[in-house]
Design brief:
This protein starts with a strand and ends with a helix. With 171 residues, it is an alpha/beta fold. The chain has a single domain (2-170), classed as Spore Coat Polysaccharide Biosynthesis Protein SpsA, Chain A (Alpha-Beta Complex). Helix content is 28%, strand content 20%. A hairpin with a 2-residue loop joins strand 2 and strand 3. Strands 5-4-1-6-8-7-9 form a seven-stranded mixed β-sheet, with helices on both faces. Helix 2 (68-78) crosses helix 4 (126-134). 46% of the residues are buried. The chain has helices at residues 28-35, 68-78, 96-105, 126-134, 140-143, 165-170; strands at residues 2-6, 22-23, 26-27, 41-46, 59-60, 83-88, 109-112, 119-122, 149-152.
Length: 171
Protein backbone atom coordinates (compact mmCIF):
# COMPACT_ATOMS: atom_id res chain seq x y z
CA UNK A 1 0.00 0.00 0.00
CA UNK A 2 0.96 3.62 -0.40
CA UNK A 3 1.20 6.04 2.50
CA UNK A 4 0.30 9.61 1.59
CA UNK A 5 1.10 12.51 3.87
CA UNK A 6 -1.00 15.63 3.30
CA UNK A 7 1.03 18.82 3.84
CA UNK A 8 -0.88 21.30 1.66
CA UNK A 9 -3.14 23.01 4.16
CA UNK A 10 -3.27 26.76 4.54
CA UNK A 11 -2.58 26.57 8.31
CA UNK A 12 -4.65 29.75 8.70
CA UNK A 13 -5.65 29.07 12.32
CA UNK A 14 -2.18 27.83 13.19
CA UNK A 15 -0.46 30.99 11.94
CA UNK A 16 2.53 29.24 10.34
CA UNK A 17 3.01 26.00 8.39
CA UNK A 18 1.84 23.16 10.64
CA UNK A 19 4.16 20.76 8.85
CA UNK A 20 7.14 22.55 10.40
CA UNK A 21 5.79 22.78 13.95
CA UNK A 22 7.94 20.90 16.47
CA UNK A 23 6.40 18.05 18.46
CA UNK A 24 8.28 15.49 20.56
CA UNK A 25 11.64 16.22 18.95
CA UNK A 26 10.45 16.16 15.34
CA UNK A 27 8.33 18.38 13.13
CA UNK A 28 4.72 17.30 12.65
CA UNK A 29 5.62 16.36 9.06
CA UNK A 30 8.60 14.23 10.10
CA UNK A 31 6.53 12.47 12.74
CA UNK A 32 3.75 11.66 10.25
CA UNK A 33 6.28 10.56 7.63
CA UNK A 34 7.71 8.09 10.16
CA UNK A 35 4.21 6.79 10.95
CA UNK A 36 3.92 5.80 7.28
CA UNK A 37 7.35 4.13 7.01
CA UNK A 38 5.87 0.62 6.94
CA UNK A 39 4.14 1.34 3.61
CA UNK A 40 5.55 0.01 0.32
CA UNK A 41 5.61 3.56 -1.01
CA UNK A 42 5.38 6.96 0.67
CA UNK A 43 4.28 10.23 -0.91
CA UNK A 44 3.99 13.69 0.55
CA UNK A 45 1.39 15.75 -1.29
CA UNK A 46 0.92 19.48 -1.02
CA UNK A 47 1.82 22.70 -2.78
CA UNK A 48 5.28 22.88 -4.36
CA UNK A 49 5.06 26.67 -4.09
CA UNK A 50 5.09 26.40 -0.28
CA UNK A 51 8.74 25.28 -0.39
CA UNK A 52 8.57 23.82 3.11
CA UNK A 53 12.13 22.49 3.09
CA UNK A 54 11.14 19.09 4.42
CA UNK A 55 13.67 16.21 4.40
CA UNK A 56 11.55 14.40 1.79
CA UNK A 57 10.04 15.63 -1.48
CA UNK A 58 6.58 17.17 -1.61
CA UNK A 59 4.66 16.41 -4.78
CA UNK A 60 2.39 19.17 -6.01
CA UNK A 61 -1.29 18.23 -5.94
CA UNK A 62 -1.86 20.00 -9.26
CA UNK A 63 -4.56 22.40 -8.12
CA UNK A 64 -4.89 25.85 -6.58
CA UNK A 65 -7.42 24.46 -4.10
CA UNK A 66 -6.30 24.16 -0.49
CA UNK A 67 -8.57 21.41 0.74
CA UNK A 68 -7.90 17.82 1.80
CA UNK A 69 -9.95 16.49 -1.13
CA UNK A 70 -7.29 17.85 -3.51
CA UNK A 71 -4.53 16.00 -1.67
CA UNK A 72 -6.45 12.72 -1.49
CA UNK A 73 -7.25 12.86 -5.21
CA UNK A 74 -3.64 13.67 -6.07
CA UNK A 75 -2.35 10.85 -3.88
CA UNK A 76 -4.64 8.35 -5.60
CA UNK A 77 -3.50 9.60 -9.02
CA UNK A 78 0.19 9.42 -8.08
CA UNK A 79 0.26 6.17 -6.09
CA UNK A 80 1.61 2.92 -7.49
CA UNK A 81 -0.74 0.92 -5.27
CA UNK A 82 -4.51 0.51 -5.21
CA UNK A 83 -4.85 1.30 -1.49
CA UNK A 84 -3.60 4.64 -0.19
CA UNK A 85 -3.39 5.42 3.52
CA UNK A 86 -3.92 9.17 3.82
CA UNK A 87 -2.53 10.89 6.89
CA UNK A 88 -2.87 14.63 7.44
CA UNK A 89 0.16 16.33 8.93
CA UNK A 90 -1.88 17.61 11.88
CA UNK A 91 -2.80 14.28 13.54
CA UNK A 92 0.46 13.46 15.36
CA UNK A 93 -0.88 10.64 17.54
CA UNK A 94 -2.09 8.35 14.77
CA UNK A 95 -0.07 5.15 14.92
CA UNK A 96 0.71 2.18 12.73
CA UNK A 97 -2.01 0.00 14.29
CA UNK A 98 -4.70 2.57 13.51
CA UNK A 99 -3.46 2.94 9.94
CA UNK A 100 -3.34 -0.82 9.43
CA UNK A 101 -6.91 -1.14 10.76
CA UNK A 102 -8.05 1.42 8.19
CA UNK A 103 -6.24 -0.39 5.37
CA UNK A 104 -7.68 -3.77 6.37
CA UNK A 105 -11.25 -2.44 6.31
CA UNK A 106 -10.95 -0.46 3.07
CA UNK A 107 -13.64 -0.97 0.44
CA UNK A 108 -13.73 2.28 -1.61
CA UNK A 109 -12.67 3.94 1.63
CA UNK A 110 -12.26 3.28 5.34
CA UNK A 111 -12.39 6.13 7.82
CA UNK A 112 -12.54 6.51 11.58
CA UNK A 113 -15.75 7.39 13.39
CA UNK A 114 -14.69 11.05 13.47
CA UNK A 115 -14.59 11.63 9.73
CA UNK A 116 -12.68 11.27 6.49
CA UNK A 117 -9.09 11.70 7.75
CA UNK A 118 -6.97 9.84 8.43
CA UNK A 119 -8.33 7.27 6.02
CA UNK A 120 -7.66 4.50 3.57
CA UNK A 121 -8.85 5.10 0.02
CA UNK A 122 -8.86 2.84 -3.03
CA UNK A 123 -8.32 4.04 -6.55
CA UNK A 124 -12.03 3.23 -7.12
CA UNK A 125 -12.81 6.39 -5.09
CA UNK A 126 -10.92 8.65 -7.49
CA UNK A 127 -13.73 9.38 -9.99
CA UNK A 128 -16.04 10.66 -7.23
CA UNK A 129 -13.24 12.75 -5.71
CA UNK A 130 -12.29 14.27 -9.06
CA UNK A 131 -15.93 14.96 -9.96
CA UNK A 132 -16.50 16.82 -6.68
CA UNK A 133 -13.21 18.69 -6.95
CA UNK A 134 -13.99 19.80 -10.53
CA UNK A 135 -17.41 21.02 -9.39
CA UNK A 136 -15.85 23.06 -6.57
CA UNK A 137 -17.47 20.83 -3.94
CA UNK A 138 -14.58 20.58 -1.52
CA UNK A 139 -16.06 18.60 1.36
CA UNK A 140 -14.23 15.30 1.68
CA UNK A 141 -16.86 14.23 4.20
CA UNK A 142 -19.66 14.66 1.63
CA UNK A 143 -17.92 12.64 -1.07
CA UNK A 144 -18.04 9.67 1.30
CA UNK A 145 -21.80 9.52 0.61
CA UNK A 146 -20.96 8.33 -2.93
CA UNK A 147 -18.54 5.62 -1.83
CA UNK A 148 -18.66 2.19 -0.22
CA UNK A 149 -17.14 3.19 3.12
CA UNK A 150 -16.16 1.21 6.20
CA UNK A 151 -16.21 3.01 9.56
CA UNK A 152 -13.36 1.87 11.80
CA UNK A 153 -13.50 2.51 15.55
CA UNK A 154 -10.21 4.12 16.57
CA UNK A 155 -9.28 5.42 20.00
CA UNK A 156 -10.29 9.12 19.92
CA UNK A 157 -7.05 10.07 21.70
CA UNK A 158 -5.15 8.93 18.60
CA UNK A 159 -7.26 11.15 16.34
CA UNK A 160 -6.58 14.47 18.05
CA UNK A 161 -6.24 17.15 15.39
CA UNK A 162 -3.90 20.13 15.79
CA UNK A 163 -5.45 23.34 14.46
CA UNK A 164 -3.83 25.98 16.66
CA UNK A 165 -0.58 26.36 18.60
CA UNK A 166 -2.66 25.90 21.78
CA UNK A 167 -3.88 22.52 20.48
CA UNK A 168 -0.28 21.46 19.98
CA UNK A 169 0.75 22.72 23.42
CA UNK A 170 -2.04 20.65 25.03
CA UNK A 171 -0.61 17.48 23.51
Amino acid sequence: MTGALLVGGASARFGSPKALAPFAGLTLAERAWQALEFCDERLAVGKAEDELGLPFPVLDDGTDVRAPIAGVAAALRLARNDVVLVLPVDTPRVDRAALLALAAACRDAAVPQTGPLPGAYRRSALPALERRLAAGELSLRRVLDELDVSIVRIDPDLLVNVNTPDDLARL
